[in-house]
Amino acid sequence: MALTKNSKVLEFVEESAKLGQPDKIVWIDGSAKQIAALKEEAVKSGELIKLNEQLLPDCYLHRTKVNDVARVEDRTFICTKNRDDAGPNNYWMDPRQAYELANEIARGSMKGRTMYVIPYSMGVVGSSFAKIGIEVTDSIYVVLNMNIMTRVGKQCLDALGKDGDFIKGFHAKCNVDADKRYIMHFPEDNTIISVNSAYGGNVLLGKKCFALRIASYLGKNEGWMAEHMLILGVTYPDGEKKYVAAAFPSACGKTNLAMLIPPKHYLEKGYKIETVGDDIAWIRRGEDGRLWAVNPENGFFGVAPGTNEHSNYNALKSTQRGTIFTNVALNTDNMTVWWEGLSKELPEHCIDWTGKPWDPAKFDKKDKSTCAAHPNSRFTAPATNCPCVSPEFDSKRGVPLSAIIFGGRRASTTPLVYEARDWNHGVFIGSAMSSETTAAATGATGVLRHDPMAMKPFTGYHMGDYFAHWIEMGAKVTNPPKIFNVNWFRCDKDGNFMWPGFGDNMRVLEWILKRCENKADAVETPVGFVPRAEDIDLTDLDYEIKKGKKFTVDDLKEILEIDADKWLKEADEIEGYYKGTIKDRIPQELWDCLETLKSKCSAVKKPAKKSTDKND
Ligand code: OXD
Ligand code: MN
User: Of all atoms in ligand 1, which is nearest to the CA of residue 200?
Assistant: First the structure.
């Protein structure tokens, strides 16, 4: 039975049913009873495998088809009337052609199935940040994941009232045919269509499709920002709290940074990190002249491999109940899950992510095809499970940002941390970000590519206009956050990571926050302000870069070094990207920053010491 009288919702559901032709329509009210019944049904059909109730209560395993394991950027389209509005960062399709194509694929594809209607909210219902979506889908897996990742149920329809507007999402699993897979966005119509996939990033339409691609377009028009950023809070020993948002490309450690546990001596002093979000931030101007952020999601869709007690205790704890695991391995000895990096010991009896018995004797760390879990296997866990979830997680007004951090995976050139001279310079730094590709999207991994603000796959409009929007937002706030860039991934000449990362990133965060309060020094360099080595706390840092080689202050100096020659090359590269890709929509302010970078680099002599960095 329909749960609303909103005629726009009813019309959308009716049209979707006419297209998909399901046998049955079920409205998701979000009640525990309904969700429990759906889990039971999915277990019966084999869509979910129930895990050990004692060890992992209310947890399930799901396997996708082997052709459907990651976001498909080359099959993701922005369908705007004017091709130029989608920009060079997106694949484009004419909206009329896109609707026709999608309708042809989806027509009748729900025959014999149930169509679920999921009313959901991105953001706390009733908050001025929140926006409502309706996703129709023929997948129970999607319903159950959306129920963790967003706020689902009747309260969302009540918030819409009789004629409120919402984002329409139509998902049909069809035959999971990779050649007919399309993830289409119609920002001018507030509509998303996804066909022939069942992988989270392509089908949980509240996440990347709505909360980033459509929301970034709405944000540009309405004067706010939708960003691929974690949000964390730092509590000081005296109880004061500061908030930071940080953008990193997919699978580059956002969840780890968001849930960081500081080194022992910080904990002893009383420092604490609290997680507001690990993937998406919606940011608005506050009346106090600051930028305020909320996490519109309600759960974590985290990358499983590499997550363990030491790398991310809080994430692991978050997965211990009420979690859906996707494409991890099944330990058949105790019906729990396993993935590479979870433990040093390999499970003796396990089924790999494709559903076949796995032979630990054949496992070769360097050969991904021998892995038990897919490199992009995931956990979908409720945020409320997280031991360090922020008390502000459910706040309707969000949290005020002291700093925005950008970061990518760069083996050389980019120092451990540096600070922008001002907002526009920070926008320039974000616009020039590049990082190595990861398993979160299909295609080759480890390839260096431009990924401005970590939003390359998620900006729902022209990247040049997105840069201009950032500049405009900065001009409108009287007390903007300071902007920084970090690089946890700098390597020595043998390819060893030079910085320990994980909890030790607290040392960098501390410097960043001190800078925000004018309590730390810095050295001015051609790229921005860099810490003096003595200003980063190295107490008890016992990191072994390689056997027998411990991290020293000289290593720190090395990863803080700015090599003007390398940066001149970087500047040329950025210019090539601006001119060759974004072209005439680059705001003048960013051209000015590029010129400043060049002239500042040319003015300094190359340091005498030869860098030992591995080339990017
Ligand atoms: C994600 C991604 O799943 O960025 O968050 O791919
Ligand atoms: Mn992400």
Answer: 3
